[in-house]
Amino acid sequence: MSSTAQQSDEWGSLELVSAPLIEAGELVTVHLRYIAGTAGLAPGGTVSITTTSDSDWAPPQLADPAADGFLKAAPPPDCAVSVHTPDHKSIVVTLQSGKLQSGDAIDIVLGDRSGGGLGLRAQTFYEPRRYFHCEVDPTGSGKHGTARSAVLQIAGGNADSLSAIAPSDIEVGSSFALLLKAEDRWGNPAEQYRGTVTVSAPGLILPDGNDLEFDEDDAGVRRIDDAVFTEAGATRIDLEDAANGLTASSNQIQIARELPALKLYWGDPHSGQIFDASKIGDYFRYAKEVSALDFAGYQRNDSAHSTDDYHHQQSEEKVFHEPGRFVPLPGFEWSGNLAAGGHHNVYFGRFDLPMKRWNGAERLGRPDETDLPHVRDLHNYYRGTDTVITPHVGGQHADLQFHDPSLEPAVEVTSTHGSFEWILRESIERGYEMGFVGGNDCHTGRPGDDRPGHQERRYSKGGLTGVYADELTLKGILNAIKAKRVYATTGARIRAMVTVDGHFIGEKFSCGNSCEIKVSVEGTAPLERIEVYRGLELLHTEHLTGPPTGSRIRVLWNGASRMSSYSGISWDGHIDAGTGEFGDVSPVRFDSPRSGFERTGKSQLAVEGWACGYPSGVVADLTGKSGAAISPDTEITVVLNSRLVIGETFGRHGEVGPRKMALARGDSVRISATLGQLANRPATIDMGHLNRGVTLELAPEAATDRAEFTVTDDDVRPGVNPYWVKVVQQDMEMAWISPVFADYLG
Asked: Phi, psi (5° rounding) for residue 243?
């Protein structure tokens, strides 16, 4: 008899009674049944059900059987149970009276519909295997065993959009791979999509023709090898599914007779917070085959990563290593608390190197393993090696007072936690010469394209890192990061290049008292503005929008709650059009599904927003009564209240976990202005911290998705001048281009 069968005989099993496949983000019922083993279950005994990683399932409720999300536990007759939900990942059922013999069952129904509820909202990310593990303590004595687990598959929903990803640099006449993806509203592959997509671009030839029909084997994602451009000139590849009304364009591409020496590659160096190591292969497969990344790092928190799991990670890194197509970045996340220096990503220039944790060697490692308890120890241990370390803002933010320039060439400024321009600015203020990178830092197994869903601790789409490297190899990517030939985006593959006196991103050179900064940007959407900085000083803003029509307004809210982790802001309020009426209304960067708007009348919108470190809001068309032309005397009023996300801890005296997210009451604002007044200038309220504020303005019109310009700085300061660039699109996707360091001896 196998050990699994013996385990099931003694401790029982957890079985899935309901359908084995559900759709992401929908209201569902998950019916689990615990069947007792030979150990039985006595009064005081417990059945604890846990899932394998963070998720954004709606929390089950125990109060109202007629409402959505009700959790029902049904024991055999003459037995009584209690139910406890300690957190978002676990359910504890305690037998209060009666006794379970071998073969007796307790039904646990998540999203029970028998009382009239519609079900429980499922997680919004697709997952081939979502495990429900079960621990049984038959008597409540603390002696427990593991019952057999149940497993559920979460699939993507109907196609809501299309996307296309191509290499950023393509050589005329040479084959390349084009990836097409049908996405549901949560960004998952729409596995049931069966549409026909027409692919078009000047000079593009596909091996099977340009009309492609998706079938069951594609599962919503189709990779086309051996695509060829016969001529230069195209800047994007367009998609259309006419039958389903879906269109899309690829990322910006550059086609040349000969590839440049430095090519632009895209990657997610920081993701992989997956509890179950058996899913690490799925993680790299998604990065390579769904997100079409060139490189990705699996960065599990060290204090939660066993040596056995780390060895499995290392095996998968080598399985998926394919120079020229996909490069895993070997490493881990050194996850010290703030007193120890905060969180840092560690990347190795070779495979199979050991992990040196902040803590946990005794708990998770082998007898000969030791910890590095402070970031200074981390620096000392790896100094002089080919290791790369990047501080970031994650579960804990990095303390930048500790910095080793020989190891730390870049700082991470954006992820699913939010955008943290403050840490970029802190690095400059301290005089550090660092580049900027972005990542996903996600728990969902979707590197390169994660969305926050309803997760309490995530507020943003995942970031990406653009790397200018001479080759797509581990050495090529890490050398480019060391050279700071990198930049961060909020997930959009914005193409950008900056030179100062002919010197490229990341370079340091000696200059005179004047510098010429050349900027070239190709956006994934119409551009709003490009800002050029010398250190913390804004030198120039290139405005790139068209003039407003006068009958459309835009309301944006922005900012973060604090210079730390888990620093989102929740906004709620309304927009009143006075004597006008709202026409079409569209969201601006509602990354979180908790953001939204509702028409509460012809002249009023209720709005709610969840964000962290980036602007979001709405654009609305206005008319007069019954569709008449809007008057410039029409007064618009915006009222918004803010609540600031804070991280509460409840262990001991409140200084340790478990950590819960809480909301503290923040500022309230009211802005009123007529359309005529807004034609002169926007109405803004600066709330004084981390760009927190609200803007009411006439909506700018789209003008261009590309820009090239030159800025001359005739006032170069003595010392090192870091010239860097920030790109903002009209959809509020952003990019931060690493500095060129001009050293003026004065």
From this structure: -65, -35
Q: What is the DSSP letter of 9?
A: H
User: Residue 352: what residue type?
Assistant: D
Enclosing H/E stretch for 673: strand 656-674
Element (H, E) at 187: none
**Can you give the residue ranges of every domain in the chain?**
3-155, 161-256, 263-491, 494-547+702-746, 552-698
Three-state secondary structure call for residue 297:
strand
How far, in Å, CA of 213 to CA of 218, rounded?
9
Among 414, 398, 408, which Cα is nearest to 335's?
A: 398
> What ranges in 507-615 are assigned the alpha helix state H?
none
| Segment 511-516 mean pLDDT | 97
* Distance of alpha carbon 431 from alpha carbon 485, whole angstroms: 19
Q: Please report how many Cα atoms fall inside a 13 Å half-sphere around the Cα of residue 405, on the Cβ side.
A: 8
Give the Cα separation of 382 and 509 in Å (integer): 27
Question: What CATH architecture does domain 494-547+702-746 belong to?
Answer: Sandwich (2.60)
CATH architecture of the domain covering 161-256: Sandwich (2.60)
DSSP string covering 17-52, please?
-S-SEEETTSEE-EEEEEE--TT-B-TT-EEEEEES
Strand-pair category, 221-229 with 176-183: antiparallel
Q: Tell me: the pLDDT tens digits for 618-658?
A: 999 999 988 899 999 999 999 999 999 887 777 776 667 77
Sequence-distant (6+) residues with CB within 8 A of 112 are 29, 65, 70, 71, 72
Report residue 688: phi and psi, to 5°. 85, 5
**Tokens 């660092």, residue located:** 434
The full DSSP string for 50-113 is: EESS---PPPPBSS-TTSTTBEEEE--TT-EEEEEEEETTEEEEEEEES-BPTT-EEEEEET--
CA of 588: how far to CAs of 471, 591, 653, 731, in Å?
37, 9, 42, 6
Q: Say yes or no to pLDDT of 53 above 70.
A: no
Residues 6+ apart with CB under 8 A from 180: 162, 163, 164, 197, 199, 212, 221, 222, 223, 224, 239
